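Thread: Modeling a multi-component assembly for a lab meeting

Hi all, long-time lurker, first post. My supervisor asked me to bring a structural picture of a complex we are working on to next week's group meeting, and I have zero experience with this. I have the sequence lines for every component (851 residues in total). Could someone generate the structure of the whole assembly? Inputs are pasted exactly as I received them:
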Amino acid sequence: MIRHVWLIARHEFVETMKSRTFLVTLLLIPTMIAMGVLVPRWLKTRATTTSAIALIEAGKEDWTARVREALALERARLEISALHDWLAAHARPEFRHDGELDESRVPLLLLKNHADITDWDARRFIDSGGLAQWLPIAMSFAEPDAPPFLAPPPLLRIVEPPAGLVDHEGADRNAMGRSLAPWLEGRRRLADGSPLKAVVIFPPRVAPVPPDVPASIGRGPVERSVQIWSAGALDSVIRSRLHDALDHAFRARALEQGLPDPGLVRLWDMQAPVRYLDVSAAGGRTITLADRMARVLPRAASVLLIYFLLINSSLLMSHMMEEKSNRIVEVLISSVKPDALMAGKLIGASLIALFLFVFSVASVLGVLFLAGGSVFVEITRALLAAVGDSPILPALIAYFLLGYFLFAGLFLTAGAFCETPKDVQALSTPLVLAMIVILFVVWAYGAEPKSDAARLLSFLPFFGPFMLMARVTAEPPVWEVALAIGLQTLYIAGILWLSARLFRVAVLASGLPSVRLLITRIRKH
Amino acid sequence: MSDEINVPVVELSHIAKRFGSHQALADVSMRVEPGEVFGFLGPNGAGKTTTLRILLDIIAPDSGRRRVFGDPQPLEHASRIGYLPEERGLYKNMTAEAAIAYLAELKGVPGRIARQRAAELLKRWGLGEAVRRRIGKLSKGMAQKVQVLSTIAHDPDLLILDEPFSGLDPVNQQVLEDLIADEKRRGRTIIFSTHVMQHAERLCDRILLIARGRDIFTGTVEQARRLKGIRIELRITGDPAPLARLPGITAMQVDPDTPGRVLLETEPGFRADPFLRALVQTGIEIDRLRMIEPSLHEVFVHLVGADADGLSGNGARSDGKREATR
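Re: Modeling a multi-component assembly
Sure thing. I ran the full set together rather than chain by chain. Output:
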């Protein structure tokens, strides 16, 4: 019996691995992951075009200067952030502490993420020479063989308004529209040949508005609003960058007018000094990105488990259907006991599933690492640290196997009833729907891994392995984990027992038998 | 082994099997001796495949006794049995050699030897070029041959072939007949079901006729033929009426298209001597006389039709079965 199980498992594994469709799947996994990671990055760094924007001041306020400054500050913020990501990924070990950049050795400005960078930081960056000054500083902390730093491409370029536009002070809107149309529609081009993407006009009486008037949501009178002219809707990134710069300029103006000392605007940048500490070390251990990853990872992994089970289960069903439809199953069960056939198939398919799972995870990590993108490298480091420092990996494999055997027996038995892909579809649909329900429930309750609902779900059949996975870093009591695993093992034994009985009936059944007939035959077996 | 010499390879006794409301087998008994080629004949739906599946332990009988190699658990002897199902298929993505070797391994042959044997068989039976080819790339005939070879790769003592000739072209039918003859020479026991009587006539030591889930005859082809009387064709001059009253004649038919041509049906176990004496005494002028042996097909039709009508009489058992004296 053991020899038969082994032979069938080996056959399942080897033949699947050799099949063209599986090889294509193996090729597709890293390719798709690489495309998902690299294409947006490439588009962001290489394919981004810089849009020309003209600013027109119709009044006496110098709004254009303020908007230019706001845009320059945002540009500086992006450059600082990119420098941080690059350095975090490629800093030499002596400039790291607990896996992150060492604040005692690396300048504070280079320690900041985008969200941490204030106007004050951005101004300091610009005033001290900008990227030309800070890149060599960052490089002095980086590995010598680090990939070259790629500065984020500029999204916007402020250009002088084209000559020959109507007098914007006196012109009505119709005349302005007619005057701008040839430029914005691309019929006329700027001196360097590039098109004009948008024209921003600041009317004479435009002023900051409080949040309780319609003008704050773009419903104010046009002649008292900042007019952004374009041909069709602007790209959402340009739109939000421009809008943020305008908000920044108008908010700064309002603060200057409201404050007795304009220098107090700097107070805007004041922040709460926060440290997140973990109790695992006396005196507290700083919580790192790896810690945050460890918090999210189990829940993501539990969803991944379900996803891989779905892929593998359909593979299991279609393989069984193939053997059933070409009648080879009759030869098999004249050679081995149906239980051995089923066990061999389950073990073989579980090895395929495990291989696919490990291959996919390795592909994700490999692509992230090889992608060389600073953010990706940092995330990969944190991911590896999270996996290395916690029981995630062994738990992932253990719960994967529990989850697998809970479902695989049912899928295999369903496959044994199928003779056509249509049968597979009909019988797999309820099982797939059940898995999707489990996915949603685990995702919802996994967010609170210590809640009573999460604990209860850990003991229930089908939900258990995934919920246990989602709770793996929440340090559930050992007795709870042991009891849950014990119960899941019992469920698996029960389900496989029932599946085996159904399987024996199914492999020789022609078409889908009625429930009554099924029960009769199960009793006979 | 010596104990096995006198043990029938297969022994079924009053086997019955029902699928839902359908009585697939009502009462089937058979006994196959070592080294025999045993033909299993019957129309579609007679219960041939069900009987073979019960023999193989693929399904269990509802009642009756089943023994293969003297054991009521045939699956325990799976490594000694080769099985070719009626509906055939193999793994299309596997090479011919790998597919044969895999099935042989399941029957207990070690992996390396299984591969060697698979390659040897393929070469011996004219499929040397197919050794490394995927089965999906082979012609239908070649794929069928591969499947037949997969049933003998583990060198079984008992071969069970369900309609092995169906779907084969005449050339491959001959190849299969040669293979069966070859296996018989090697002392193997072979059971095959068929509805092509010529194969049974040429190959079988004994046959079993089955209809509507019941065995209706077991014996040699010759014995089967004797179940139906011969036909006698006469060309005469004169009144044929006295011919109908001659000993052993059960029916007479006068050919309206050919003057003087008369066909006589005889009873089973017909003896020519008393008939010829009585024929001479009638004084009828005989131009020509020909005795025609019934074909197995005619015997089969005769028996199945008779079984349906609840035949009884010569050679019939009290339970409606006929059995030749061995």
